[in-house]
Specification:
Elements lengths: L2 E6 L3 H13 L2 E6 L2 H8 L6 E5 L7 H11 L4 E6 L4 H9 L4 E4 L7
Helix pairs in contact: 2-3
């Protein structure tokens, strides 16, 4: 069975590309466009991997990081952003993010 993961990305083209590439790599991605959708899913399911943009809507990927880690302390959360700053990287790392990716990035990353 493919490993399930959650993708949270508001840009449809980036989200669709990530889903396609991850499916080809053998994963079973679920993808949503907002923090509201992501937090609702995370309240009912403990994903082993979550990949989220940081700057989405009224909430951020940091909120998703905290929700994912509350549901599954072992969840590997990968945060990504095109507007990264050292403060954002430090907040993500302090919150337990597994990895931080600056956009644009190569899908091989």
């Amino acid at each position: 069975m493919s490993q399930k993961l959650l993708i949270v990305e508001d840009d449809p083209s980036v989200r669709n590309t990530m889903v396609t590439v991850l499916e080809l790599e053998g994963y079973a991605p679920e993808a949503v466009a907002s923090t509201r959708e992501a937090i609702a899913l995370l309240a009912t399911e403990a994903y082993p991997i979550v990949i989220s943009d940081i700057y989405l809507d009224e909430r951020t990927g940091i909120d998703i990081l905290h929700a994912a880690r509350r549901q599954n302390p072992d969840c590997a959360v990968i945060l990504m952003s095109g507007r990264g700053s050292m403060e954002t990287v430090m907040t993500a790392t302090a919150g337990g993010a597994f990895e931080y990716l600056a956009k644009p990035f190569e899908m091989a990353q």
